[in-house]
Design brief:
single chain, 85 residues, mainly alpha
Length: 85
């Protein structure tokens, strides 16, 4: 896949990371494996998939968006832990 314009990919990755920061922050307050915890982990996925289709990316982009989403979740939860200390 060739990228003539890297801005759509950058926008998708920033959205994937940025939307998961507050979700990871909130996830830290919920009980592990509860419904609330599950929803906070998966809430951004439909929006990321929709943006991926709108920008015309195929399945090869999924690992990058998944990495950014997990990084956003982890950093958001770390921010929450540090503010509680």
């Amino acid at each position: 896949m060739y990228f003539d314009d890297p801005l759509p990919l950058l926008a998708l990755l920033i959205f994937s990371f940025g939307s998961n920061l507050p979700l990871g922050y909130l996830r830290e307050t919920s009980r592990k494996f509860s419904l609330h915890w599950f929803v906070l982990i998966h809430l951004s996925i439909p929006f990321i998939v929709t943006l991926r289709y709108m920008f015309g990316f195929d399945w090869k982009i999924i690992p990058l968006t998944l990495f950014c989403a997990v990084a956003g979740q982890l950093i958001g939860s770390r921010i929450r832990r540090r503010t509680l200390q």
